[in-house]
Amino acid sequence: MSDEVKVEDQTQEVQEAQETAVSQAEAEHALNNVAVLKKGATVKGKIVKVDADQAFVDIGYKYDGVIPVRELSTDAEATLLGQEVELKVVSINDAKETLVLSKRVVDNSKVWESLQGQLDSKEIIEATVAEVVKGGLVVDIGVRGFVPASMVERQFVEDFSSYKGRTLRLRVKEIDREKNKVILSQKDILDEEFEANKKKIIEGLQVGQVLDGTVQRLTQFGAFIDIGGIDGLVHISELAWHHVEQASDVVKEGDKVKVQILKLDPSNDKISLSIKATQEGPWSNVEREFKAGDIVTGTVKRLAAFGAFVEVAPGVEGLVHISQIAHRHIGTPHEVLKEGQEVQVKILEINTAEKRVSLSIKDTEEAPEAPAGAAAPSAGKPDRERQPRGDRDRGNSASHQKEIAGNENVSLSNQGLSMTLGERFGDKLSKFKK
Fold this sequence. Notes:
Strand order of the largest sheet: 3-2-1-4-5
Strand content: 25-35%
Helix content: 25-40%
Structural class: alpha+beta
Shape: rod-shaped
Number of helices: 8
């Protein structure tokens, strides 16, 4: 054999020895890795076979591992042949060559980490309603999530049966991994969007602007009107030109109305509206419908110490002064009138500029006959001479005299004398004047 042949054989033997050494090193390394594989370890592998109830995974161990179907994932379709997956070792038994793995545990861990991040960042996520339960909705977000009934919509929802299968936009409100508890809310997102939209709408509004609106809800002090994604208040005094006892007397929920903007308060998100400002005022027709001297039917609306306010047309009230209520002397209007009573009144004067109407009840009634033997008071006599005797006596009372005495410009004796002469000789003095 030549020297060249010997050299080639030696070279080949060296290469084979080197390859054998590498293979032994790799095998040793693999054996070392196998030796540290234990329960609870996280490994990566490739799905090599999928059956109806399990999947087989090559993780580089001396035998394949098995993922039972219950440990595949919350979404079974996410597990595909040839897929690279991260797994948790559930159990290992080399004697029986059984290696049970779980994909669900790893996935759940990632879900909780993701949920914590979404909670911190207030990220908006989407989820489908899987179930309607007492008190709220259950959604699938990799783990079981719960949306309380109060956190579904901005308004109260009585029946959630139609929500199953519906996709919601949600925000994580609370998580508790130990209790496997996740609370979510859609209402928070809707509230934020509503507030942002409200500010945008208010910026585009102007005082005096007339808008179409819908009555949303009624309160003791007025009605809230939706004017396109934002509510404004019509105070009860702005519902109609006439006096309104309660809002439901004029409008009801769902009514379409025209409103005028009276006031805008963007800093407090308040809008004051008026319905009556969009309607023709009742005083615009007063001069066409009434004139001085007319006798009309009215309703007593309010009683005061000085008279009664009587409504003669919707939104038009006139004053019957206490002196115009009855032919006889009365102390207060309550003696002869009550609120809600219908009365006949005569129009004495109309002042549309000041929105005033003067009325009289006694002018619609015939004056009572004077008692027999009683002399009619002279038109020329002062008011004091026509006062009842009791009133004149009260004028001479000690307290009244004391009040007069306090005025240094009036003599008490002269005052008393002048009253006596006026009372006793008033008629005779008037004859001399004639």
